[in-house]
Amino acid sequence: MEAIDERKRLLARYEETILRRDRAQKEAENYYIAYISVFGDLITETFRMKIACIRKKKMIAYCQQQANRGQSVNEQALEEYLAREMQEYEEELATLIENVQTAKSGTPVSTRARKEIKEIYYRLAKLIHPDLHPELAEDETIQEAWRRIVLAYRHNDAEALAEEEQLVLAHLELLGIGESEISIENLEERIRRLDAEIAEIHATDPYQYRFLLDDREAVKEKKKELREEYQVYEEYAAELDRVLSGFQRERVYS
């Protein structure tokens, strides 16, 4: 009897720890969205100027290489070279711009709606969470449902979660599966790993952003730092332009 009670206690702890891990992941994402909504425009403009400097440096290196060979610069060859070299930076900029737009387009969620979202998610997690129900890992319908559930949870979509709950319950009924005893081994070790994962999430930059966002003076200081960083890149870009103009005078760069 004691062994059974101990297992039930560990299962309850395991379930609670999984949900804490999921909650920490969502909180980190929300802090990141809040951070981007506050600083995104400045970060974007600074990064745009940074990659402009990187582009100019690569142009200078290319032109210098051609000059060392005693060759003029072929404009098309230069542009093709820059397109290859700058692709990763341009993709990173595009992702940043998209993140800023997404953060700004988000709608506030009421306390009541947030509570409802959490309750539905937790009910669904108890039914089909992959960590709690590895026996459902091969069921494609459940896998797809869980992906949609996680997405709806992260986007605070209570309506979508409610719909998914009905679909999941209907599918489980078809399978003849109710609330059964969870059969998972090594519960204590699993709990330790989850606790470690939670600690790692709490240590990440997105999770730590909450301290910055709660401090009005720190927000002002961060914005000041980003403006100063932009100015540094702007001045550096002007220096690089002067170097590039030298190649133009020598007719190496045109």
What would you say this structure looks like, in words?
This protein is an all-alpha fold and 254 residues long. It is built from 8 helices and no strands. The N and C termini lie far apart (86 Å). The C terminus is likely disordered.
Question: What characteristics describe this protein?
Answer:
254 residues, disordered C terminus, 8 helices, mainly alpha
How many angstroms separate the termini?
86 Å
Helix content: over 70%
Strand content: under 5%
- Main sheet properties: none
| Unreliable parts | 249-254
The geometry reads as elongated
Extended strand count: 0
* Radius of gyration (Å): 27 Å
Topology:
Layout: H1 2-68, H2 75-105, H3 111-128, H4 140-154, H5 158-175, H6 187-203, H7 205-213, H8 216-249
In short:
The protein has eight helices and no strands. The protein is mostly helical and 254 residues long.
